[in-house]
Write a structure and sequence with these properties.
The protein is of the alpha+beta class. Helices cover 46% and strands 13% of the residues. The strands form three sheets. Strands 3-4-5-6-7 form a five-stranded antiparallel β-sheet. Strand 1 and strand 2 form a beta hairpin. Helix 2 crosses helix 6.
Length: 439
């Protein structure tokens, strides 16, 4: 019997009993990353960590970006597409991924049924990190790791080639739209999974009702032993659900009173800081109640200079900006540059703007390798190395800065000052692409 289930970015997926889906060829991906979601990026990381020839990987990325990948077929353990070379030669390309065993599927489904939030997330085409982590704790690896993607191509390459690399980059876009694509690769289609989850959920509900009825009958017949009741004296009832999150921070207390403030106390500054603290408290509350908050890195403590930049970035009042500049020993133009950098990447971006550091030989070698391999032949701009991990594009007021975290930051000189003009990127080509036509 042939059925259809809804496709993602590439259109309707179709196959037998939902265990094969075919996605129409996606349009070229010019000017956008192949993966926006964390699981899509994890798929690409497995691809990039596995590749022995980074040149083939780069060529495959360009082929995918140019729209050379045809319709993609996804079925258990395999993805397939026809990839065309620049001269029009077509190659059938496959990438294999190990299917989960029956025992692994049982453990995964039992784990999902235990938390209704997991089912809701999947139905919302989301894959929360804690779902993947809990599956891994149960011995079920959903996302591929190093060496898990096995390429096969009609071009007879023995390892990952540009055709299979292009296919993997295109599949990352499908995964972004629908994590059920990954589960199908692991062995089961969406309809089959949802049917099994419904059966297990109903079975679990009947079991709970039976246990509750049995406990009530036992309690009514025999009562509770005195020592058991005494031992349970400190057991608290479940916590009530948290109250709804406010839509906006509360109003801070007004310090505009008839009495003058004590000497050395700036009432206007205190009111501003109180309002900022209320806004930060609301953001912390929203983060704490969001899914996966326990895996979010804690904000490091800011120095007074960094916090002044943060305050200026969050407030549009020019008078406050002037006072913050004076309080931190900056010129107003310097503070404006710092605020712009902060908006592109927080404390890390501010450090790239204001700190000078000389990369260690190993870090410098990685940076030079990035510069050498980020562009296609003939497309690499001419750059001039400077101090502190900075490379300036010859003939343009554009600069690339290499951060301590190994990421690249785009800069442009305006009115004689270098300023950040975009967020960081993992490779210099992507960072420079955000600068604009002047590059």
């Amino acid at each position: 019997m042939t059925g259809t289930d809804s496709g993602g970015a590439g259109g309707a997926g179709r196959g037998t009993d939902g265990n094969e889906r075919t996605f129409a060829a996606l349009p070229p991906a010019q000017g956008r990353a192949f993966a926006q979601t964390w699981w899509g990026r994890a798929w690409l990381k497995a691809l990039e960590d596995t590749a022995l020839d980074l040149g083939q990987l780069k060529k495959g990325r360009k082929q995918a970006r140019d729209g050379a990948v045809g319709a993609v077929s996804v079925r258990p353990g395999r993805i397939t597409a026809v990839v065309r070379d620049r001269d029009g030669t077509a190659h059938r390309s496959d990438v294999l991924l190990q299917q989960l065993s029956t025992e692994e599927w049982d453990r995964f489904l039992d784990m999902v049924v235990e938390r209704a939030g997991h089912i809701a997330a999947l139905l919302d085409r989301d894959m929360p990190p804690h779902l993947v982590e809990e599956a891994a704790s149960a011995g079920v690896e959903l996302l591929p790791g190093i060496g898990d993607l096995e390429p096969e191509c009609a071009c007879d390459a023995w390892d990952l080639c540009l055709h299979t690399a292009a296919l993997c980059y295109q599949v990352a876009r499908l995964l972004d739209e629908d994590p059920f694509v990954l589960l199908l690769m692991r062995g089961r289609g969406e309809r089959q999974l949802l049917d099994e989850l419904q059966v297990r959920s109903a079975r679990a509900a009947r079991t709970r009702r039976g246990e509750d009825a049995g406990d009530e009958a036992a309690d009514g017949a025999a009562g509770i032993r005195a020592d058991e009741a005494f031992a349970a004296r400190d057991i608290l009832p479940p916590l009530p659900p948290p109250p709804p999150v406010p839509q906006e921070p509360g109003l801070p207390p007004s310090l505009d009173t008839e009495a003058a403030p004590p000497p050395g106390i700036d009432a206007d500054a205190l009111e501003f800081l109180a309002a900022d603290a209320a806004g930060r408290a609301l953001r912390l509350l929203v983060d704490a109640l969001s899914a996966g908050h326990e895996r979010q890195p804690l904000d490091r403590e800011l120095t007074p200079g960094q916090d002044a930049v943060r305050l200026a970035a969050s407030c549009g009042d020019p008078l406050i900006a002037v006072r913050l500049a004076e309080g931190t020993g900056r010129q107003r133009a310097e503070l404006d540059l710092a605020v712009e950098a902060w908006r592109h990447g927080g404390a890390a971006a501010l450090a790239v703007l204001e700190e000078e550091w000389q990369p260690e030989p190993e870090a410098l070698a990685r940076a030079k390798a990035d510069l050498a391999g980020a562009w296609e032949d003939g497309e690499r701009p001419q750059v001039r190395a400077g101090v502190a991990g900075r490379w300036t594009v010859v003939g343009a007021d554009v600069q690339l800065r290499y951060g301590r975290d190994g990421r690249w930051w785009p800069y442009r000189k305006v009115r004689g000052r270098w300023g950040a003009v975009g967020p960081s990127a993992a490779d210099p080509a992507s960072a420079l692409a955000g600068v604009g036509a002047g590059a």
